[in-house]
Design a protein that fits this description.
With 198 residues, the chain is an all-alpha fold. 70% of the residues lie in helices and 0% in strands. It has a domain of 99 residues: Orthogonal Bundle (Rna Polymerase Sigma Factor, Chain: A).
């Protein structure tokens, strides 16, 4: 039986993780190249600021290198580093003390960098573009107002496509708790958007 690409990638990451945990900086650098973009997207989704997300990601990878002896191989290395990054992002949010800023641009495609520009359809009218932009802002603010624990699982599930099991490992809670938080987050968004868009 031939191994799938996912299995081969998982084995590659495991080999690199073993080497990195033994102090191999080159192997750790390879893991960084493989996983950084996905980690950054998650943190950016939580913070809503690309520059701050970059700083938090760098901090998370530094923590991972310093704590590499704590990685026990019970979960994928990608899950372990995601957990560190999510916790670092939550710390940043707590320090910020003002959660009313626009963030989670991934839900609206309003990234200033144009990375996620969903309004590229030139056939649409200015009125339609304006309506979508206003909708995006409404969604952003609705997500921004969610409690941290609900917002985190929403980002990991809806944007990163993580399974319930993976999210449970990242946020260190039971799968049932993940499902409950996600249900509450979606419910609150639906109520909020129905109220504001009706």
């Amino acid at each position: 039986m031939h191994e799938t690409d996912e299995q081969l990638e998982a084995e590659r990451q495991l080999d690199l993780a073993r080497a990195a945990c033994a102090g191999d900086r080159a192997a750790f650098g390879q893991l960084f190249k493989l996983l950084y973009a996905r980690i950054h997207r998650t943190v950016w989704g939580m913070l809503g600021d690309e520059s701050e997300a970059h700083d938090v990601c760098q901090e998370a990878w530094i923590k991972a290198w310093k704590r590499r002896d704590r990685y026990n191989f019970e979960s994928a290395f990608s899950t372990w580093i995601h957990r560190i990054a999510v916790n670092s992002a939550l710390d940043a949010l707590r320090k910020r003390k003002r959660l009313g800023q626009r963030f989670l641009r991934v839900f609206s495609g309003s990234s200033e960098s144009g990375t996620l520009d969903m309004a590229a359809d030139t056939a649409r009218t200015p009125k339609e573009h304006l309506r979508d932009k206003e909708l995006g802002k409404t969604i952003e603010q609705a997500v921004a107002d969610l409690p941290e624990d609900q917002r985190t699982v929403l980002v990991l599930r809806e944007y990163e496509g993580y399974s319930y099991e993976e999210i449970a490992q990242v946020v260190n809670c039971k799968i049932g708790t993940v499902m409950s938080r996600l249900h509450l987050a979606r419910q609150k968004l639906q109520v909020r958007l129905k109220k504001e868009l009706s």
